[in-house]
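Re: your question from the hallway

Yes, I did run it. Sequences:
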Amino acid sequence: MTIHRDDLADKFGMWLFIFTELLLFGMLFVVYAVYRSMHPEAFRIAGEELDVALGTINTVILLISSATVAMSITAIQKGDKKRCLQLLSITLLIAVIFMVNKYFEWGAKFEYGFYPGSDALAELGHGTILFFGLYFFMTGIHALHILIGIGLFIYVMLQVKKNKIHQTDYIWLENTGLYWHLVDLIWIFLFPLFYLIH
Amino acid sequence: MSEEKTHMVPYSTQIAALLALLVLTGLSVAITQLEFGGYNTLAAMLLAGAKAVIVLAWYMHLKYEKQLFPVMVAAVFVIFLLVLFVTFFDYSYR
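Structure:
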């Protein structure tokens, strides 16, 4: 007897989850749009406080990690387990580097006295408080997704190693890839809206 | 076993997509130095939109999936735009 499998349904379920995520972040972008339209000048000045170089580095490495996870799926389809694991290791490493960068970035803000509810922010007025509130909340939820991604990649790599994920059964890898691309997709919009305000 | 034959995206396509994404990222950083008289945000969003399309079509395989998938993604985007519109309509006329 063969175990029933329905990869299309698995993928469909993953996409439904992705839609809830898109709407979660989408509504936060709506909040951002309203507050920015109310405080355009404060948002512009506050945006200049963010580290463009660090933001750009994180954007670039996250895009590279999206490419490596997409390529790992091609590798498993070809039955190339070694290449697949190599590509997933690079992805995992990049996810960790992203979090390290985030640590330094947030750390610098905290040192400066900028954190949710801080006195330094309270003195700077409504617009600045709203900007940094959204900055910490949105990049924070995004970073939480990166952490979950790290856990998923470790799990998937172990499954590949144990041949539980292989050439003809790799839906776990494919859905993890979809999740990771979603995390990348959200960052694609977070980056210009927070770091590149003109 | 699922009877669907899955599509294999060659490495070269994925590298090409990555290069396009990196070029668009470079562009969006570069245009912050320029003055477009208020159109900077629009330009940044158009570039981000182009990047999103590349990720969705090639990395998330929407280009190769059944048509239902891209249609659903488009529907979610329309819902987002509607909420954005209604929210601004509310804020502009209260």
